[in-house]
Design brief:
It is a single chain. The protein is an alpha/beta fold. It is about 45% helix and about 10% strand. It is built from 36 helices and 20 strands. Strands 1, 2, 3, 4, 5 and 6 form a six-stranded mixed beta sheet that branches. The chain has a six-stranded mixed beta sheet with strand order 9-11-12-13-10-14, with helices on both faces. The protein is elongated. The chain starts with a strand and ends with a helix.
Length: about 850
């Protein structure tokens, strides 16, 4: 028999004519109207042909497709959107042949349409079958699961049986406005209604649907959402049936209309608790059983409910749960309360973080994860190295095939902590995963301890085993109250030993470094495993196409430095060291002190770790040095030289960025500077340190009090700093004496003598710069009692003067002229006697000017 088709078009388009021609040419299709119907004539056309119509093809936008389906629920509607070449049947590469085949399929498969045609559909292939029978019709957006299909068939059968058991009385008008015009059998399932005219047939159909649903859920276990609710959350079958009744109106308008009819109020289109209890059996017994088991409330499956509502209140599922039931795998994790906490990607290091001291830890954690726990158990992973715990958990879970639910707790207020914990437990159970709550990245003070405890208890009460990573988590032992708690503690790893992780991470990124280079990286940068992996990837991405073998290490050093200190440039100025120790001119004993300071940093791992002297320095293992002396004596140059000798970057602390008008903000900024400098292995330079470390004054008002607090915190943080910090000042007497006690080195930079000045004159001349052989550096050193900074300024001025004359080289007359200008700037007038031997040079300079 030919299918009767009507084509409705909202705007004139050639597509309507093409479809019309194709329908006319197809032998198994028949047009209800001789032409395409315009939208303004749609009502009359449907009134004329609606009862006998099989298929409606709607072309264009603004067509009331769902309204048509509400009045003609057995009608198949294909909505074709003009423009993007998309038919709302979710077919790929849609052509006319595919469209006609789809319409045939939808009509022939009417008995298989579990949710009706109010939704869009797509065609799912059935392997091993041919032609149209090789497909089945599935609502778009729903995961293609037999369990969902059988569940909706069970809903249909239940509604039909209830209707048979409770027919409307003679003369009743169910649903008021709809009246008796459309019987409920036609709204629920037309094909099934014809077969369920008698009560016994309806009861038999429900038993068959119930049996089929139970068998399917037993077969799929927890691999599909409906099975996971039943098996993983341990819901009763009665609770699952209640969920299905709540879910049905979210899938199809027919169920909304049916619920309105059953409520005798078309405005109440969602299932109420009273209706659900009536549909599932003796209402009072069903209500009592749902109240006893409490699964719907315990797992927060129904919206905004910590208890079952009143009988006349609607019972709605949480939106995230609906999306998850319809096949959106990540919907529960996308809950607004969990979105920022759930980490989907595995933690780094599982495949390559293998320090010798921790070789057996992944196997131990794997055994714990695989154990079947009879009663709730919390495993507390404490101590240093939270990133190692994460890597070992990933490795152990991979070994035993146990999925992890990674929760990184940043901030959870005490008020919603319990609700967050319940949803974490729900997500873990439906995924059959072990929740791992990472407290190591929690912001200080962001989450009260009571809030963390409430969250942990909410999880622990609902899942058999929970892993908690907490560096200082012993306080949780009393709060969580687990019947069985296991405490594992990490010992601080030797940083040299962690070099194997750098080598392995570099190899994973396609870079080759030696074990010694890995150890150097580990000693220089205090990076987490995530930071190590990120640095290795960054270095690999920046690899030149024609890089020579063995050049990966410098790039990896630069990548580690950038990864370790992302916030350091906010408060400091990054400077690449420009000078070496050979450029620093100092008396021998002072230079020896400078070399000793560098040696303390270079040999710290061996002395403090290997030889055990670290126990003598409980407050900090870093090196702090004060370089004092007159302006221009080489203090900043020495800081450059120290950083260069250590192969480190120099960061000059900017007081304008660190200081703040808000109380407590400066201390936070100072902490960021020191913390990130430690991670980056950088050298900190406090230039003009008396601005930071000035003497504390007597407290006369609030300003003095807070200023003293800032200095006190700086003193405390300086003492605990593990790197090299260099302070320079021209006024040592202004430095607080408490700082001087905590400085390992105090090096005085004297004004240079004659020999030192001559050496500085010679070193300040660039090697590539031509100079006149007549320049007498010894004379300049004897005659000009100035510092190295002044000498550099004189030579720069002389160079510009020579360039202005287009002279081939710097001559003595240029230096004499620049010296006079520099002495004038310093308030020292040069005299004819001082430069008597070079009067002719001054005269030549004046003539040239």
């Amino acid at each position: 028999m030919a299918l009767k088709v009507m084509i409705i078009q909202s705007q004139k388009d050639v597509l309507g004519q093409v479809v019309e021609t194709a329908i006319i040419d197809a032998p198994d299709f028949e047009l209800a109207e001789d032409r395409v119907v315009a939208i303004e004539n749609m009502g009359l056309a449907l009134e004329t042909h609606g009862a006998t119509l099989d298929v409606l093809i709607a072309i264009g936008d603004g067509l009331p497709v769902r309204t048509v389906l509400a009045w003609y629920p057995s009608l198949i509607v294909s909505h074709i959107v003009i423009g993007p070449d998309a038919v709302h049947l979710d077919l790929k590469h849609v052509g006319l042949d595919q469209l006609l085949s789809t319409l045939r399929l939808l009509h022939r498969k009417e008995d298989d349409r579990a949710a009706g045609c109010a939704l869009e559909y797509h065609i799912a292939s059935r392997p091993g079958q041919a032609a149209d029978d090789a497909c089945e019709v599935v609502p778009a957006g729903m995961k293609v699961t037999t369990a969902m299909t059988k569940a909706l068939r069970w809903v249909d059968a239940l509604l039909l049986l209830y209707h048979q058991q409770n027919p409307p009385a003679e003369g009743d008008i169910p649903g008021l406005s709809r009246g008796g015009r459309l019987p409920i059998e036609a709204m629920v399932k037309p094909a099934a209604a014809e077969q369920a005219l008698r009560l016994e047939a309806a009861r038999a159909a429900l038993l068959e649907a119930d049996k089929a649903l139970r068998a399917e859920l037993e077969r799929v276990g927890g691999s599909e959402p409906l099975g996971a609710l039943l098996h993983n959350l341990s819901l009763s079958f009665l609770e699952l049936q209640a969920i299905l009744l709540c879910l049905a109106p979210e899938l199809d308008l027919r169920y909304q209309a049916a619920y309105g009819m059953l409520h005798d109020d078309l405005g109440r289109r969602s299932a109420t608790l009273g209706l659900i209890c009536a549909l599932l059996g003796e209402a009072e017994l069903v209500r009592a059983e749902l109240s006893r088991t409490q699964g719907l409330v315990r797992w927060r499956l129904i919206e905004q409910a910590t208890a079952l509502p009143h009988a006349d209140e609607p019972l709605r599922l949480e939106p995230e749960l609906i999306a998850w039931l319809l096949g959106e795998h990540d919907a529960l994790a996308a809950d607004g309360r969990l979105r920022r906490m759930v980490r989907v990607a595995p933690w780094p290091g599982a495949g390559w973080a293998r320090e010798p001291e921790r070789a057996q830890m992944p196997q131990q954690l794997g055994r714990l994860l695989a154990e079947t726990v009879a009663e709730d158990r919390v495993v507390l992973l404490t101590g240093d190295g939270a990133d190692r715990w994460r890597a070992d958990l990933e490795a152990g879970a991979t070994t035993v095939g146990k999925p992890l639910l990674r929760i990184v707790l940043g901030a959870a207020s005490e008020g919603n902590a319990e609700e967050i914990g319940i949803r974490i437990a729900r997500l873990a159970q439906v995924q059959a995963a072990v929740p791992v709550v990472d407290l190591s990245e929690m912001e200080p003070g962001a989450t009260p301890s009571d809030g963390v405890a409430r969250l942990s208890v909410a999880i622990q009460e609902r899942v058999p085993q929970t892993m908690v990573i907490a560096p200082d988590g012993e306080w949780l032992l009393g709060a969580i109250g687990a019947r069985r708690c296991l405490l594992l503690r990490n010992q601080r790893l030797d940083r040299r030993a962690t070099g194997v992780s750098y080598v392995a991470a570099a190899a994973e990124a396609g870079l080759a470094i030696t074990a010694e280079e890995g150890a150097r990286l580990a000693l220089t940068f205090e990076l987490s495993l995530g930071g190590v992996a990120a640095a290795a990837r960054l270095a690999a991405m920046e690899k030149p196409a024609a890089e020579l073998e063995g050049r990966a290490f410098p790039r990896l050093v630069a990548a580690c430095r950038r990864t370790a200190s992302p916030d350091l440039p906010k408060f400091t100025q990054r400077i690449e060291p420009a000078f070496s120790l050979d450029d620093v001119v100092l008396p021998a004993e002072r230079k020896a002190q400078l070399r000793e300071m560098i040696g303390h940093v270079l040999h710290a791992p061996r002395v403090l770790n290997d030889w055990g002297f670290g126990a003598q320095l409980p407050y900090g293992r870093g090196v702090a040095a004060l370089l004092s002396g007159s302006s221009g004596t080489g203090k900043t140059m020495a800081a450059h030289a120290a950083a260069r000798a250590l192969d480190a970057v120099l960061y000059v602390v900017d007081i304008s960025q660190v200081a703040s008008k808000y109380v407590g903000e400066m201390e936070k900024n100072i902490d960021v500077v020191f913390t990130e400098a430690e991670r980056a292995g950088a050298v900190l330079l406090f230039d003009e340190a008396d601005a930071f470390f000035s003497k504390r004054s007597e407290v006369k008002d609030a300003h003095d009090r807070y200023a003293n607090m800032e200095v006190a915190y700086l003193l405390q943080r300086m003492e605990s700093f593990a790197g090299l910090a260099i302070l320079t000042t021209n006024f040592r007497q202004n430095i607080d004496q408490a700082f001087l006690r905590r400085l390992r080195f105090v090096i005085e930079f004297p004004r240079p003598g004659v020999e030192a000045r001559e050496a500085i004159w010679r070193r300040c001349f660039p090697q590539d710069m031509r100079q006149d052989s007549a320049i007498d550096f010894a004379f300049l050193a004897r005659q000009l009692d100035i510092t190295g900074g002044n000498i550099r300024q004189i030579l720069v001025g002389a160079a510009f003067a020579a360039a202005a004359e287009n002279a081939p080289a710097i001559e003595m007359r240029h230096i004499v002229a620049a010296s006079g200008a520099e002495l004038t700037k310093l308030g020292k007038q040069s005299t004819a006697r001082e430069f008597a031997e070079y009067e002719n040079y001054r005269r030549q300079s004046a003539n040239a000017a």
